[in-house]
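agent> Task received from the user: take the single chain below, predict its 3D structure, and emit structure tokens. No templates, no multimer pairing.
agent> Plan: (1) validate residues, (2) run structure prediction, (3) serialize to tokens, (4) report one or two observations.
agent> Step 1 OK, no nonstandard residues flagged.
tool_call: predict_structure(input=
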Amino acid sequence: MEVIRSQKRTPSNDTVSNPKIPLYLTAPPMEVRLEEFERFAIDRLRVLKGISDGLARGRNPKEMDDLVDTLWKEHMRDADASVMFKKDIISHFVLRLVYCRSDELKKWFLSMETALFRYRFRLQNFEAQRAIVGEFGLPYKAVTGAELEGLKERLGQVVRSLGQISPTVEAVYYKVPFEEVPDLVASRRVLIQKGYAFVAGSQLVSLVVTQFRSHLSKALILTNRKWTTTIREREKDRLTPIVEALSTSYLGPDYSQSTEYAEISLKDIDQVAKSCFPLCMRHLFEKVREDHHLKHGGRMQLGLFLKGVGLKLDDALAFWRAEFTKKVGSERFDKEYAYSIRHNYGKEGKRTDYTPYACQKIISSAPGTGDHHGCPYRHFSEDNLRAALGRMGLSSRGMEDVMDKVRNKHYQLACTFTFEAVYGTSCDAGINHPNQYFEESQKILKSKTPPAPV
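)
tool_result: status=success, residues=454
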């Protein structure tokens, strides 16, 4: 797969017209425009992150089927089958490059791609599924003749134990080493005899998904070798910055402009902080009120958040001045701190309009001694986090739900559960940005406020 600069090019039918699920065994010989390289990867990443959120929430299989179907239609489907197939191929191999770079990234990508493949495979008809078995080169043959006849009664017992009707004459079974279908063995959905599991044709998904996962796991190791030995250095001025940024990409609004639900002033900032700030910003706000100072990381995280929720530059300068001068004095504040505040608002230096930090950036930060920035769900001790959640009014049950997500490293979902517990409503989209938390809370609170009399 070769990445090229933007130019018009019609892909050949031989390359991209196949409508069945690609197995991603080898990268196809197709050219990719640079903008497609990133755009296709981001669209697939939206699908995978949606799957990750659904699994972390404990959605049942039917809910997951509906979720994946919706995500695929929204982000990957195209009326032109050849375009969709091309996008499918390109996006997978780009993300394979993105997520091969550490064990943690590989583990996440492997799990999400496997879940996506499982869903798509189940939608294929039986003949298409058998064709995929053949494409993987699996050496399993259907059980026939006397062997099948001798097992029919025991196979029927397994089927009936699952609440299904006995196998028909047309039922197809495959003889497979039992260790290759661990999920079927663990759930007692297959007959095992002499080291072999007898897998029904309707259970092919387990067999194929095991092979898919095994192949992808090995491929990620090989991709990592290529990345570290050649690709990273060779593409340092073109693809490497894109690849390194994609795994931590925030895919939603940047909140650089305040909305109707995002505009605060100094007179009500304390009340709004208590009622609408996410825990990360509430903690920083309380610390600056308490200590009259924050280190650089905290000032950046809170300052850009306040900008995003509509605090004007003059009010921002007044807010920081009122706190910091209690500790450092007016002269030092004007000399060391006022410039950076104006800089964040695009009024100094290169006049860049800086945007508030998204959850992923905050989670990946590394606060040191004396720092208060970062994500409380990741960086707080359990005792400190429980105390902070208690101050936000979470019940014991709500707190345990949040802590369960924290223990499983689902930090954004832990924040989502906090939001749902505080405001008593679901947030299906999940919390991905502190300013999103603020806006959604404002919508809820304003909807409960009776309109002013005319």
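agent> Step 4: summary for the user.
The longest strand covers residues 173-177.
agent> Done.
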